[in-house]
TrEMBL record:
Catalysed reaction, written as an equation: heme b + (2E,6E)-farnesyl diphosphate + H2O = Fe(II)-heme o + diphosphate
Protein family membership: Belongs to the UbiA prenyltransferase family. Protoheme IX farnesyltransferase subfamily.
Transmembrane segments: 32-50, 56-80, 101-122, 128-148, 155-174, 180-201, 229-246, 252-273, 285-311
Major place of residence: membrane
Key word Hydrolase present: no
Subcellular location: Cell membrane
Name of the featured protein: Protoheme IX farnesyltransferase
Organism listed in the record: Polycladomyces zharkentensis
Pathway membership: Porphyrin-containing compound metabolism; heme O biosynthesis; heme O from protoheme: step 1/1
Other information: Carbon 2 of the heme B porphyrin ring is defined according to the Fischer nomenclature.
Classification via PROSITE patterns: UBIA (PS00943)
Length: 312
């Protein structure tokens, strides 16, 4: 067998490798880790709404629709922010700054995913869930990405509403309506967003300054940002406790909310006392915020499931 023929047998075709590279680039556009986090909050909300494990098909259909919508919104975000992504160290390796994908393809990809999401949810779940998905998409792409992000240090505060919609989507998927517990879950993520993201913004402050993005630390300084983080953390804790009084969750959730909330507050207090030229506790607080929200929503779901199995 000749050497060229042997090489073609032993190594994958070049076109296949290029196709795999393109697929990976499109997958990167979707910000899959954030999407998975959103699916988690939506499923937990659905369990609370149902008071038991919801129908598997309904959950699968809701999850698919939400994945399509959130992935499409992320793609539009990367398309619009490609100019600042190539400046910031943590984003310059994304597909558009590196030239792996053409901007127009990313735009069409994002719009196409959202259209599929709206149709899918309308047909296989219900109209309200489909509308909420579209609202979340427009909130993130238009209100946050195109309007707020580059204009005001309140971008994260107001823009937090986009990431807060998935629990309402999960609730509406199994009930066909939006109950007060779902509204409080929305408020929990809304008030969680500033003390979650601003610690990261403190860590990456130099990059935001270089890119000209008016994040709170870049405009008001780290000391004022930490002060506001403490304020929103107190508001967040009160909001998490209020969910208990709707009757949708029980004592297990309340205990988890109190313990995890005090732990989250501890991280912010340590960040407050850290010198502003250091970011060790800011980085720890950012990662703690992710764990905190997971504990909150997991405890909601577990509380509801335990109540169902014990009292049914």
């Amino acid at each position: 067998m000749s050497a060229p023929l042997l090489d073609s047998v032993q190594s994958p075709p070049r076109t296949f490798l290029m196709a795999m590279k393109k697929c990976k680039a499109y997958l990167t556009l979707t910000k899959l880790r954030i999407v998975i986090f959103m699916i988690f909050t939506a499923i937990c909300a659905a369990i609370v709404a149902k008071g038991e494990l919801p129908d598997v098909w309904t959950m699968a259909a809701m999850a698919i629709g939400l994945v399509l919508s959130a992935a499409g919104a992320s793609a539009i975000n990367m398309w619009y922010d490609r100019d600042i992504d190539e400046i910031m160290k943590r984003t310059m390796g994304r597909p558009l700054p590196t030239g792996q994908l053409r901007p127009q393809f990313a735009l069409l990809f994002g719009i196409g995913l959202e259209l599929l999401s709206v149709i899918w949810l309308w047909v296989f779940v219900n109209g309200l869930t489909s509308i909420l998905s579209l609202v979340g998409f427009l909130y993130y792409t238009v209100i946050y990405t195109m309007w707020l992000k580059r204009k005001t240090p309140q971008n994260i505060v107001i823009g937090g509403g986009a990431g807060a919609i998935p629990p309402m989507i999960g609730w509406s998927a199994v009930t066909g309506n939006i109950g007060w517990p779902a509204v409080i879950m929305f408020a929990i993520i809304f008030f969680w967003t500033p003390p979650h993201f601003w610690p990261l913004a403190i860590v990456k402050n130099d990059e935001y300054v270089r890119a000209g993005v008016p994040m709170m630390p870049a405009v008001r300084g780290p000391r004022n940002t930490k002060r506001q983080c403490l304020f929103y953390t107190f508001v967040l804790l009160l909001t998490t406790f209020s969910l208990y009084f709707t009757g949708a969750v029980g004592g297990l959730y309340l205990a988890a909310a109190i313990i995890s909330g005090l732990a989250f507050l501890f991280f912010h207090i340590r960040m407050w006392y850290e010198p502003d030229d250091r970011t060790v506790w800011a980085k720890r607080t950012f990662f703690a915020s992710l764990f905190y929200l997971m504990v909150l929503f997991a405890s909601m779901a577990i509380d509801s499931l335990l109540s169902f199995f014990v009292f049914s």
